[in-house]
Protein: Ribosomal RNA small subunit methyltransferase G
Amino acid sequence: MSYYEQYPDLNHKLDIYESLLQKWSTSLNLVAKSTLSSIRLRHFNDSLQLLPFLNKTDKIVDLGTGAGFPGMILAMCGFNVTLIDSDQKKCVFLENVSRETNTQAKIVCSRIEQFASRETFDIVCSRGVASLSTLISISKHLISKDHSIGLFLKGENVDIELSDISSDRFHKIKSPIQPNSYIIQYRY
Structure:
Protein backbone atom coordinates (compact mmCIF):
# COMPACT_ATOMS: atom_id res chain seq x y z
CA MET A 1 0.00 0.00 0.00
CA SER A 2 1.39 3.41 -0.94
CA TYR A 3 1.48 6.33 1.46
CA TYR A 4 -1.12 8.06 -0.69
CA GLU A 5 -3.51 5.11 -0.22
CA GLN A 6 -2.74 4.90 3.48
CA TYR A 7 -3.49 8.61 4.01
CA PRO A 8 -6.48 9.47 1.75
CA ASP A 9 -6.32 13.28 2.22
CA LEU A 10 -2.58 13.45 1.67
CA ASN A 11 -2.54 13.90 -2.10
CA HIS A 12 -4.95 16.84 -1.95
CA LYS A 13 -2.99 18.46 0.89
CA LEU A 14 0.27 18.02 -1.01
CA ASP A 15 -1.27 19.66 -4.10
CA ILE A 16 -2.06 22.73 -1.99
CA TYR A 17 1.37 22.63 -0.31
CA GLU A 18 3.12 22.41 -3.69
CA SER A 19 1.15 25.39 -4.99
CA LEU A 20 2.06 27.45 -1.91
CA LEU A 21 5.72 26.47 -2.23
CA GLN A 22 5.75 27.57 -5.87
CA LYS A 23 4.13 30.88 -4.90
CA TRP A 24 6.28 31.73 -1.85
CA SER A 25 9.59 30.04 -2.62
CA THR A 26 11.31 32.79 -4.57
CA SER A 27 10.70 35.51 -1.99
CA LEU A 28 11.50 33.32 1.05
CA ASN A 29 14.19 31.03 -0.36
CA LEU A 30 12.21 27.98 0.78
CA VAL A 31 13.70 25.41 -1.59
CA ALA A 32 16.45 25.52 -4.19
CA LYS A 33 15.19 26.87 -7.51
CA SER A 34 16.57 23.75 -9.21
CA THR A 35 14.16 21.56 -7.19
CA LEU A 36 10.95 23.49 -7.89
CA SER A 37 10.12 21.20 -10.81
CA SER A 38 10.52 18.07 -8.67
CA ILE A 39 8.96 19.09 -5.35
CA ARG A 40 7.08 15.80 -4.87
CA LEU A 41 10.11 13.57 -5.37
CA ARG A 42 12.81 15.78 -3.90
CA HIS A 43 10.98 17.15 -0.87
CA PHE A 44 7.66 15.40 -0.21
CA ASN A 45 8.73 11.79 -0.83
CA ASP A 46 12.04 12.43 0.93
CA SER A 47 10.01 13.37 4.03
CA LEU A 48 7.56 10.48 3.66
CA GLN A 49 10.36 7.91 3.85
CA LEU A 50 10.41 8.48 7.64
CA LEU A 51 6.90 7.02 8.07
CA PRO A 52 8.00 3.38 8.61
CA PHE A 53 10.00 4.51 11.67
CA LEU A 54 7.05 6.20 13.41
CA ASN A 55 4.19 5.18 15.68
CA LYS A 56 0.92 7.13 15.63
CA THR A 57 1.37 8.01 19.32
CA ASP A 58 4.84 9.54 18.83
CA LYS A 59 5.37 13.18 19.68
CA ILE A 60 7.68 14.54 17.00
CA VAL A 61 9.82 17.68 16.84
CA ASP A 62 11.32 18.90 13.55
CA LEU A 63 14.42 21.02 14.12
CA GLY A 64 15.15 23.87 11.72
CA THR A 65 12.17 22.92 9.61
CA GLY A 66 12.56 25.70 7.02
CA ALA A 67 9.94 25.01 4.36
CA GLY A 68 8.42 22.29 6.55
CA PHE A 69 10.42 19.19 5.67
CA PRO A 70 9.97 16.64 7.04
CA GLY A 71 7.66 17.89 9.83
CA MET A 72 4.76 19.38 7.88
CA ILE A 73 4.52 16.29 5.69
CA LEU A 74 4.38 14.08 8.80
CA ALA A 75 1.72 16.35 10.32
CA MET A 76 -0.32 15.98 7.11
CA CYS A 77 -0.28 12.24 7.81
CA GLY A 78 -1.86 12.86 11.22
CA PHE A 79 1.20 12.83 13.47
CA ASN A 80 1.63 15.13 16.48
CA VAL A 81 4.40 17.41 15.20
CA THR A 82 6.07 20.55 16.51
CA LEU A 83 8.04 22.44 13.85
CA ILE A 84 10.79 24.79 15.04
CA ASP A 85 12.49 27.43 12.92
CA SER A 86 14.11 30.74 13.79
CA ASP A 87 13.01 32.52 10.60
CA GLN A 88 9.77 34.44 11.28
CA LYS A 89 8.84 34.64 7.58
CA LYS A 90 9.18 30.88 7.13
CA CYS A 91 7.03 30.33 10.23
CA VAL A 92 4.35 32.59 8.72
CA PHE A 93 4.55 30.49 5.54
CA LEU A 94 4.14 27.30 7.59
CA GLU A 95 1.14 28.73 9.47
CA ASN A 96 -0.38 29.46 6.06
CA VAL A 97 0.30 25.89 4.87
CA SER A 98 -1.23 24.51 8.07
CA ARG A 99 -4.35 26.65 7.66
CA GLU A 100 -4.79 26.10 3.88
CA THR A 101 -4.35 22.32 4.15
CA ASN A 102 -6.32 21.98 7.39
CA THR A 103 -3.30 20.32 9.02
CA GLN A 104 -2.76 20.44 12.76
CA ALA A 105 0.84 21.34 13.53
CA LYS A 106 2.47 23.39 16.25
CA ILE A 107 4.78 25.96 14.66
CA VAL A 108 7.34 27.63 16.91
CA CYS A 109 9.51 30.54 15.84
CA SER A 110 12.63 30.12 17.95
CA ARG A 111 16.22 29.04 17.87
CA ILE A 112 16.37 25.39 18.85
CA GLU A 113 18.73 26.06 21.74
CA GLN A 114 16.35 28.67 23.16
CA PHE A 115 13.13 26.69 22.74
CA ALA A 116 11.86 25.84 26.21
CA SER A 117 9.23 23.15 26.21
CA ARG A 118 7.41 21.55 29.12
CA GLU A 119 6.84 18.49 26.98
CA THR A 120 9.44 16.09 25.70
CA PHE A 121 9.49 14.34 22.36
CA ASP A 122 9.77 10.72 21.25
CA ILE A 123 11.19 11.56 17.83
CA VAL A 124 13.62 14.33 16.90
CA CYS A 125 13.95 14.81 13.15
CA SER A 126 15.62 17.18 10.78
CA ARG A 127 16.69 17.55 7.19
CA GLY A 128 19.65 19.56 5.97
CA VAL A 129 20.09 21.76 9.03
CA ALA A 130 23.32 21.05 10.89
CA SER A 131 25.88 18.35 11.53
CA LEU A 132 24.76 15.27 13.45
CA SER A 133 26.87 16.10 16.48
CA THR A 134 25.36 19.60 16.59
CA LEU A 135 21.80 18.31 16.16
CA ILE A 136 22.27 15.77 18.94
CA SER A 137 23.82 18.33 21.26
CA ILE A 138 21.19 21.06 20.78
CA SER A 139 18.23 18.68 21.05
CA LYS A 140 19.04 16.86 24.29
CA HIS A 141 16.76 19.13 26.32
CA LEU A 142 13.80 18.06 24.14
CA ILE A 143 13.99 14.29 24.47
CA SER A 144 12.20 11.71 26.59
CA LYS A 145 15.10 10.24 28.53
CA ASP A 146 14.04 6.61 28.26
CA HIS A 147 13.20 6.07 24.59
CA SER A 148 13.76 9.00 22.21
CA ILE A 149 15.32 8.52 18.81
CA GLY A 150 16.58 10.89 16.18
CA LEU A 151 15.71 10.48 12.51
CA PHE A 152 18.04 12.65 10.48
CA LEU A 153 17.94 12.89 6.68
CA LYS A 154 21.51 13.23 5.45
CA GLY A 155 23.40 13.38 2.15
CA GLU A 156 26.46 11.76 0.65
CA ASN A 157 28.94 13.25 3.15
CA VAL A 158 27.27 11.58 6.12
CA ASP A 159 30.26 9.34 6.90
CA ILE A 160 32.32 12.38 7.87
CA GLU A 161 29.61 13.39 10.35
CA LEU A 162 29.24 9.85 11.67
CA SER A 163 32.93 9.69 12.57
CA ASP A 164 32.12 12.02 15.51
CA ILE A 165 29.30 9.81 16.85
CA SER A 166 29.55 6.65 18.96
CA SER A 167 28.89 3.76 16.57
CA ASP A 168 26.68 1.87 19.02
CA ARG A 169 24.15 4.73 19.04
CA PHE A 170 23.23 5.01 15.36
CA HIS A 171 22.06 2.99 12.39
CA LYS A 172 22.76 4.24 8.86
CA ILE A 173 19.97 3.38 6.43
CA LYS A 174 20.25 3.93 2.67
CA SER A 175 17.43 6.08 1.35
CA PRO A 176 15.07 4.02 -0.81
CA ILE A 177 14.23 7.05 -2.96
CA GLN A 178 17.19 9.44 -3.04
CA PRO A 179 20.56 8.35 -4.44
CA ASN A 180 23.48 9.15 -2.14
CA SER A 181 21.12 9.93 0.75
CA TYR A 182 20.64 8.27 4.12
CA ILE A 183 18.39 8.15 7.13
CA ILE A 184 20.38 8.17 10.34
CA GLN A 185 18.49 6.56 13.19
CA TYR A 186 20.10 7.73 16.43
CA ARG A 187 19.35 6.37 19.90
CA TYR A 188 19.66 9.11 22.54
The domain at 3-187 is CATH 3.40.50.150 (Rossmann fold). The longest helix spans residues 10-28.
